[in-house]
Amino acid sequence: MRYIGGKALLLDYIMDTIEAETENVKTVIDIFSGSGAVGSALKARGYGVLSNDFLYFSYVIARGTIGICTEPAFEKFDFDVIDYLNHLSLETAEYPLERCFIYNHYSPNENCGRMYFQNKNALKIDLIRLQIEEWNEAGLLSEDEYYYLLAALINAVPYVANITGVFGAYLKFWDKRTYNELRLEKPSIIPSDRKILCANKDYTRLLGESYDLLYADPPYNSREYLPNYHILETIARYDYPKLQGVTGMRNYENQKSVFCKKNTVRAAFETLIKDCRSRYLLISYNNEGIMGTEDLCRLCREYAAGDSFRLIEIDYRRYKNKIPNNKAGLKEQLYFLRRN
Predict the structure, then answer these.
(1) In the prediction, which pLDDT does 6 show?
(2) CA distance linking residue 176 with residue 178, whole number of Å
(3) 247, 183 in Cβ contact below 8 A?
(4) Cβ proximity of 22 and 212 under 8 Å
(5) What is the pTM of this model?
(6) For 184-234, how does the pLDDT look when each residue is reduced to its tens digit (9 = 90+)?
(7) CB-count exposure of residue 136 (10 Å: 0-12, 13-18, 19+)
(8) How far apart are CA 65 and CA 71, in angstroms?
């Protein structure tokens, strides 16, 4: 999934820093999990992981992939569940059209002009989501199976969406990807014998957890995450929200991040660093974030044990070496410290 600030290309730097700068780290909190890339890499390296995000769709992705250590068996079904969902239609599913929220609000019809999805894919999203919920309410799915199927759906949606990368706006013409048919793929499950947990909480509620290392990838700028992924949040929750504006935004007033505002970002970082009870803290940021490099370095040093603080900077061109850009001065940053 394309994700703002995604760390797929930074994983080697993150893992190398943990291995080079720490001792006897066995458990890690990924406190802003986002797409789950870092949590998956940590799990694959053999760490026990607590993956957390305040956005529910991010939690769904983590719970349905990172949070599972063996591929679900779906023992209460005598057919391939993924294949069945991929072949759902209005005729076979028999759900009334008025229950199909994505079709009614995010694809063109007599009551809607939004062009997020072609009609066929909007309907298929609805039918799959309704079927998963019906199975769950009937007691046919374990918790692992429920989130595994939801994660498969969430991961499939961007590949047929009429967007440039995020859901903050839709294109006014149909991109070629929208003509593809939505298709679920089985999520990749990484086996592990470590304790793996997933949470959907505000970051402040997990700072007191006794993990060896806390990894934090907070927002860098004023762009809130929920408006850019509001449709994925609605598909995950399927809560029939009241929508606002041209793009059909759900209300996100109660889900704004303190890291996205100049007047709250310093206090947010100080809470993160001061109240963290993990032995080590590793923060991803960049040199054009709302919090300036010097200020964040000063704050880290204030709470670091001895001379343990390290600032590792990765040149943007090197980090994105296959993508032409003119942001020569932009650097990805890793702030590392051992707590007092």
Answers:
(1) 60
(2) 5
(3) no
(4) yes
(5) 0.93
(6) 999 999 999 999 999 999 999 999 999 999 999 999 988 888 889 999 999
(7) middle
(8) 9
**What pLDDT does 326 receive?**
42
Q: How far is CA 207 from CA 19, 255, 280, in A?
A: 22, 19, 12
User: Which residues of the chain are modeled with pLDDT < 50?
Assistant: 318-326
| 200: three-class secondary structure by DSSP | coil
The CA-CA-CA angle for residues 19, 24, 27, to 5°, reads 85
Quote the pLDDT of residue 320: 46
Residue 236 CB contacts under 8 Å (≥ 6 apart), including other chains:
56, 57, 60, 150, 154
Q: In the block, which residue shows the tokens 């918790």?
A: 143
Name 184's Cβ contacts closer than 8 Å, sequence gap at least 6. Answer: 82, 85, 86, 128, 149, 152, 153, 156
Q: Give CA–CA dist 19/12, Å, rounded.
A: 10
3-class SS of residue 288: coil
Q: What is the pLDDT of residue 317?
A: 53
The two beta strands, 27-30 and 213-216, are parallel
Tokens of 303: 């709470």
**Residue 315 per-residue DSSP state:** E
What's at 232, amino acid-wise?
L
Pairing relationship of beta strands 48-52 and 196-199 according to DSSP bridges: parallel
Distance CA 318, CA 320 (A): 5
